[in-house]
Every structure is written in C-alpha cells, then in structure tokens.
Amino acid sequence: MINKLFKSHSFLISVQFVTLLAFTLLVYGAIGITTSDKDFAIILRNTNISNLIIWSYWWPLIIVTAILFGRFWCTICPMELVTSLFGRIGMRKKPGGLLKSGWVITLFYAIILIIGIHTLAIHRIPQYMAFYMLILLAVAVIAGLVWEKRTFCTHICPIGHLLGLYAMLSSKELRVKDQNVCKNCKTKDCISTANSYKFTGRSCTSELFPPKIADNRDCILCGQCHKSCTKDNIIIKKRKLAADLFTNVKLSWAEIAFFMLVSGFVIYEVLSEWKVTKKLVMATPDWVNHSLHTSGNLTGTVKAIVLFIILPGIFYLLFAAMKRAVSGESWKSAFTQLVLAV
To answer: pLDDT tens-digit profile of 109-150?
Structure first.
C-alpha cells in the first residue's frame, strides 16, 4: 500500500500543497499576537491555536513518525515543495564545502534553540514563532533560487540532522529490491541529471544513489526515485528496529556537535520537570549569569549556551578522552560512539 502511494505522481504532492496551506494558516493565526509579560506568554503557549499545534502536536509528532517510519515528515513537508519549485527557475549553483559539511544545519539549529527559543521565546510568543516560520520559508525560497537541486533539504534544514538521527531507529527503510537490476540499468533514471528538475519523477536531489544507501539518515523519503525508476526496483520495506545503530555508523563532526547539542537540550527538558533536579541543573548557568551580571533576555541566551554547548562539551570531551585512552581509537570514533549511546 505505502509503495503504491509513493509511486503515485499526484498523491504526495497533493498532501504537500495541503501542508503548505496549513503552514500559511498557522502563520496567519500567529501574526500580531505578542506580549512582553513572561507569565502571559506561558498562557499564550497553550491557548493560541497556532502555537498549540506547532509545539504541542506537530513537534512531538514528527519525532514519533521519524522513529516509526523514518523521515516521513520530509515526505509531506511544504518546504520541500517550495524549494523544489523555486529550484526549477533558480541559478542552480553547486553547494560549497561549508554547506556540504553539515555545519550549516547544526548552526541553524543552535541559533533556533539558543536565540529563538531561550532568548526570544518563539515557542511561547505567537508572533515571534510566525516570524521564524516566515524566515524558514524565505530561506527555502532563496536556497531554491541559488543552489541546485534540493540544497535546503539536504544541507540547510535545521531539523535535518535530528530527523536523520531518529530515522536510524525506524523499522522501515527505503532500499532497492535487487542490486543487480541497478547494476545492469543503462539509464539510471534515479540519478540522471536529465530528471533533476522534473515536477514529479525527479532523480534523487539528495545526492543519493538508491543501491548505495547504507542507513536512514539522509534519505528524506520524497518518493521521487519510486516514480523515476523504470524498473520498479525501489521499495520501502520493514527491517529490524534500530538496525542502523548496529552497523558501522560514521558521523561527521557537524553531526556529532548537533547530537551533543540535542542531548543537552533533552536532559535539561527532562530534569526541569522536577523542582529539585531543575535547581541542580540550573546551578551552573545561574552562577554564570550572576557572575556576568546579565539581565533580561540575555540570561536565557547565557543559560542555553552553558546547558546546551559548554556542559555537554565538557561531558563528552572527558568521556571521549577516557575511551580513547583505553581503546586507542580516534577522537571522532570515540565521540561518535558516545553520542549514539546517549
């Protein structure tokens, strides 16, 4: 059933137009609604329909779907539709080394987490959230106009690494049915540059070759290879849960830094649920803020930097150093195993 839907030339793109409409309505529902009262901002977080949908439903839902089905959100994401459409009329420049390194995704996410959430409270103040969504849309448009293929999805989207991480836990995977069919294929429509800018049935614009896909991190399940493959050799199939974690996963330094950032955020969110543990976890950032005499929104910035960058960095560095001293492995290998374990 799912493979039939992915082969359809109209179904998935129709869903994307629906999510684009939903995106527009969510922005409309948040624009103009703001406050400088921190207590009232907490109320707005749970009463403004746009904020409620984004942070209480959409955000946890994309994590759950990534764990269950892989990067399924990317399948219906309106940003993929937007950047692909503008890419058809863009300059089609090749992304440079910085974009391909993965650091843009990590830095983009860090800015959202530190400045957006913990400084400006975009998760509580609807208008700020709307501004963030419009900025994201603008970045998707600009990326489509400037760089080739689907650079926004592959190298810029701030949740790209996050969904890739959780997709490794999925019991679903997109692979080829028969490696020999791909080997003997003369046209290789799934990677042919002649198909890169078709409306549907495009070749993979995530720079992947289906028979060479090793894990779930990078495939965004857009379904284009399903439609472009003339041999009907692409399939989404079941596999063992978290199968990717039992392979020789190699992470880039950008991915390692991203996962360190996320682990700091998750630990903070969990420990903040109880007064005693929250007091403990806030001891260091409170001391730093007191020492620096920070005030206002800047205290949130300092808190986020300490909790999500400095403390996780120290933790991982110490344990990686111990692991490296015992096993003699490289720094990258030690960090990779630690972040995957955590």
So the answer is: 999 999 999 999 999 999 999 999 999 999 999 999 999 989
pTM score of the predicted model: 0.93
Q: Quick: pLDDT tens for 20-52.
A: 999 999 999 999 999 999 889 989 988 999 999
DSSP code at position 77: -
Task: Tell me the H-state helices in 48-125.
Answer: 49-51, 59-69, 72-76, 78-87, 97-101, 103-111
Q: Rounded CA gap, 333 and 330, in Å?
A: 5
106 burial via Cβ count (<10 Å: 0-12, 13-18, 19+): buried
Element spanning 331, H or E: helix 331-341
Query: Does residue 328 sit in helix, strand or coil?
Result: coil
Q: Which of 68, 262, 64, 251 is nearest to 159 (CA)?
A: 262
Residue tagged 């060479």 (tokens): 212
CA distance 251 to 320: 15
- Shortest CA distance to 32 belongs to which of 121, 127, 128? 127
By CB atoms closer than 10 A (0-12, 13-18, 19+), residue 250 is: exposed
